[in-house]
Design goal:
The complex is a heterodimer of chains A (about 110) and B (about 110).
Chain A: E1 4-7, E2 10-13, E3 19-25, E4 31-37, E5 43-51, E6 54-57, E7 64-66, E8 76-78, E9 87-94, E10 104-105, E11 109-113
Parallel strand pairs in A: 2-11
Antiparallel strand pairs in A: 1-3, 3-8, 4-5, 4-9, 5-6, 7-8, 9-10, 9-11
Chain B: E1 5-7, E2 10-14, E3 19-24, E4 31-37, E5 43-50, E6 55-58, E7 61-66, E8 71-76, E9 85-92, E10 101-103, E11 107-112
Parallel strand pairs in B: 2-11
Antiparallel strand pairs in B: 1-3, 3-8, 4-5, 4-9, 6-7, 7-8, 9-10, 9-11
The chains are: A mainly beta (about 110), B mainly beta (about 110).
């Protein structure tokens, strides 16, 4: 079955540590996205990538970094500069569609501070 | 920034009743989408309505869009316990590869037996 796989499901970060969240898709979608969701809130866009080797900042990119070396993969690094990283992180992908792009989501990674 | 605001924030109904959620947004859109999120899971796309459409149906879902009022509503008819989830509207300002989604704050729906 095609889909998006995020790993790990739970992740703990120590002070001063960078951590990387994995996102892999086998849907052959060109665009991929990273969102942050805080409790009881909607999704806020961190970074997105429309094609391989290209990505753009979203609304809350500070303290995060990404890469897009392969179409299938869009890892997110939460750096030590992100002072409040505790949140639920969601990865999504979409393909071009004349009717309008819809997004397919993974099941998220919950990041907590030790 | 969050474009959409959903109303109500939380809704509790009994099985078999209808549930209506509203979404308001601020800027012009290409399309508006509704997603569902079960607790601790990712979002699942439900329905998309384009800016030149006024109403759309999919199974027990009915979506309306009023671009003059910058608002949309999602109606779930004959609700079931399995409909318990958070529901989000999302607006797309661009089209094609330029399209990003901006999500609202969500409505938490509880359907009791």
């Amino acid at each position: 079955d095609g889909g998006i796989t995020q790993s790990p499901k739970y992740l703990f970060r120590k002070e001063g540590q960078n951590v990387t969240l994995s996102c892999e898709q086998n849907l052959n979608h060109d665009a991929m996205y990273w969102y942050r969701q805080d409790p009881g809130q909607g999704l806020r866009l961190i970074y997105y990538s429309q094609i391989v080797n290209d990505f753009q900042k979203g609304d809350i990119a500070e303290g995060y970094s990404v890469s897009r070396e392969k179409k299938e993969s869009f890892p997110l690094t939460v750096t030590s500069a992100q002072k409040n990283p505790t949140a639920f992180y969601l990865c999504a992908s979409s393909k071009d569609d004349p009717g309008g792009r819809t997004q397919h989501f993974g099941d998220g990674t919950r990041l907590s501070i030790l | 920034s969050q474009q959409g605001e959903e109303d109500p924030q939380a809704l509790s109904i009994q099985e078999g009743e209808n549930a209506t959620m509203n979404c308001s947004y601020k800027t012009s859109i290409n399309n508006l989408q509704w997603y569902r999120q079960n607790s601790g899971r990712g979002l699942v796309h439900l329905i998309l309505i384009r800016s030149n459409e006024r109403e759309k149906h999919s199974g027990r879902l009915r979506v309306t869009l009023d671009t003059s009022k910058k608002s949309s509503s999602l109606l779930i008819t004959a609700s079931r316990a399995a409909d318990t989830a958070s529901y989000f509207c999302a607006t797309a300002q661009g089209a094609g590869t330029a399209s990003k989604l901006t999500f609202g704050t969500g409505t938490r729906l509880q359907v009791t037996l």
